[in-house]
Design brief:
By secondary structure, the protein is an alpha+beta fold. Helix content is about 35%, strand content about 25%. α3 crosses α5. The two termini are about 40 Å apart. Bound molecules: 3-hydroxy-3-methylglutaryl-coenzyme A.
Length: about 375
């Protein structure tokens, strides 16, 4: 039985910051962000948007009533949790009116969480071929004003419907993983923003890739010649490009072929920024919607990396007619986001929900996004469907 990705949806908050404006405000050469990091804009989320609203919006864009009746598992991968106990998936399950007899959970391992969710979904469908699993990657990446990671922030969610006989991509059974206990990027419970050893994290990203790829080649007998494209975790686009260059080593022909596809695979990431666990799947969506070269039967190699660190290499093969499940004008939709000044972005960055003594917040700003946080009532978050 073929199992894989049947549908993919995406949602970003309605605000965007131009990194050229950020560079000027921080007295940095704009080319450091544009050429040095290969990034041009980043998505910014107001306090009425969180991993629940973004995840629900990404999923609502793809689900039919039949899907909602067949889904019996909702998995949210995230490292921007809104609660230490209750899973964001439970809120999303309710907001989307998914049939009640479902399992709803949250998975965490930095940017790797949703990839683990995808594997779990695949195993579940192997056991229950008539069911469908909703896997959502949803995150808000905030490093701090004027911090080293500031230009690599972002926010957004990718939703994937996993099923038997999928209409976009069959997931192959060739996954290999690596776990390496390192402190390259982490966020203690008492910290609002992550702690990051920037240079070390970039080295570990690449070293985990090359060593895991060597293992993948040994385990599967496959090589880069078997793949039409590669999608990597994209904390910022230049990092992905360096990863690709590292595994192509001295094979210039393969590097040139895969680099062409890579540029198609970062079109959305360049204007959204790091969305942590969803970045690799946003890259897949970007590849599928922007490549004129890919065709059914082509295989795509994936490198998922989550700091801490866990990584996975796996692959998928495109299905006949996959392009019918995609959107043609997504970049135009992204161009409609409201462009913030640096002062507006900084104000949003520091905005916090002000609770009274009883844990209530009722006067949150109006938000006309499809899903929004409406109020907090005795420490309970209440969402509105618009
Ligand atoms: P930095 O010190 O600000 O920048 O840190 P830099 O000095 O390393 O410069 C960056 C690049 O810009 C360099 O390119 C410069 O040469 C170039 P490279 O040599 O590396 O190819 N540059 C210029 N180019 C053109 N014109 C100019 C110019 N000036 C400089 N004028 C760093 C960069 C990535 C460390 C920082 O942004 C950071 O700490 N980011 C956050 C951490 C991160 O993203 N790490 C990535 C790997 S870890 C990961 O992916 C996991 C993660 O997603 C978290 C998770 O798993 O949950 C982060």
């Amino acid at each position: 039985m073929n199992i894989g990705i049947d549908k993919i949806g995406f949602a970003a908050p309605s605000y965007v910051l131009d990194l050229a404006d950020l560079a000027l405000a921080r007295q940095i050469d704009p080319n450091k962000f544009k050429i040095g990091l290969l990034q041009s804009e980043m998505a910014v989320a107001p306090i009425t948007q969180d991993i629940v609203t973004l995840g629900a919006q990404a999923a609502a864009a793809i689900l039919s009533e039949d899907d909602k009746a067949a889904i019996d598992m909702v998995i949210v991968g995230t490292e921007s949790s809104i609660d230490q106990s209750k899973a964001a998936a439970v809120f999303i399950h309710q907001l989307l009116d998914i049939q009640p007899f479902a399992r709803s959970i949250e998975i965490k391992e930095a940017c790797y969480g949703a990839t683990a969710g995808l594997s779990l979904a695949k195993s579940h469908i192997a056991q229950f071929p008539n069911s469908k699993v909703l896997v959502i990657a949803s995150d808000i990446a905030k490093y701090g004003i004027a911090s080293g990671g500031e230009p690599t922030q972002g926010a957004g969610a990718v939703a994937m419907l996993v099923s038997a006989e999928p209409r976009i991509m069959v997931l192959n059974n060739d996954n290999v993983c690596q776990t390496r206990d390192i402190m390259d990027f982490w966020r203690p419970n008492y910290d609002k923003y992550p702690r990051v050893d920037g240079k070390f994290s970039t080295e570990q990203y690449t070293d985990c890739l090359t060593t895991t790829f060597d293992y993948y080649v040994k385990q599967t007998g496959k090589s880069l010649a078997d793949f039409a494209a590669m999608c990597l975790h994209i904390p910022f686009s230049k990092q992905g490009l360096k990863g690709l260059q590292a595994i192509c080593q001295n094979d210039e022909k393969t590097l040139s072929r895969l680099t062409e596809r890579f540029h198609e695979a970062i079109v959305y990431n360049q204007v959204v920024g790091n969305i942590y666990t969803g970045s690799i799947f946003l890259s897949l969506l970007s590849l599928l919607e922007n490549s004129q070269t890919l065709k059914a039967g082509d295989s795509v190699l994936f490198y998922s990396y989550g700091s801490g660190a866990v990584c996975e290499i796996f692959s998928g093969t495109l299905v006949e007619g996959y392009h019918k499940q995609l959107v043609e004008n997504r970049l135009d939709q992204l161009k409609e986001r409201k462009r913030l000044s640096v002062a507006e972005y900084e104000a949003i960055f520091f905005e916090e929900i002000a609770l009274d003594e009883a844990g209530n917040a009722i006067d949150l700003p109006a938000d006309d996004c499809p899903f929004a946080l409406q109020q907090v009532d005795q420490h309970k978050r209440i969402y509105r469907k618009n």
